[in-house]
């Protein structure tokens, strides 16, 4: 599932999309490739309103899926099964966020015959790659992140975004799932403010006509 996405926009574009109350992120990089267990911008609910902040990508892993109870946690980047108790604790408004992006990637199913690597495809709303948001959740967490080689103990602020069934654009490349994408300000408002009964209706595939493959792997030489 999506473990790499891109953000190529500025803070003003994010402000124009959502009614930010404050911005604690500093200067946003003009081109950001977001990887798991690394900081990335999110818009989250706080007592003072909507905040643009940098959180670490990857929610706490269920204990039963860790190698050992005291093992460092690299986090869960994509959340699908929102009915599981582990995730239900973070579905309230106070733990919801939206994650700005302009494109996301998925690996194809068939490895390259020469490199043996699966090809990487990029998806966006159209070729101009306008801003959209993933529907996400976030939490504060105390523990050890990273790996046994590079552990990072302490207090962390973490996020992940929801996934759903793949639409007809994503399915031929990655049939299992796709991120939950919000493209309108009213969708963002519902996700950030509505009761879960209403907000969960947004966990659905984006219509195929509103998503494109914007970058394909290069064709093999010869």
UniProtKB/TrEMBL annotation:
UniProt-recorded Gene Ontology molecular function terms: lyase activity; peptidase activity; single-stranded DNA binding
InterPro entries xref list: SRAP, SRAP-like
Protein name: Abasic site processing protein
Xref: Pfam families: SRAP
Record-annotated membrane-spanning stretches: none
One annotated GO biological process: proteolysis
EC code: 3.4.-.-
Coiled-coil portions: none
Assigned keywords, A-Z: Covalent protein-DNA linkage, DNA damage, DNA-binding, Hydrolase, Lyase, Protease
Family statement drawn from the similarity comment of this UniProt entry: Belongs to the SOS response-associated peptidase family.
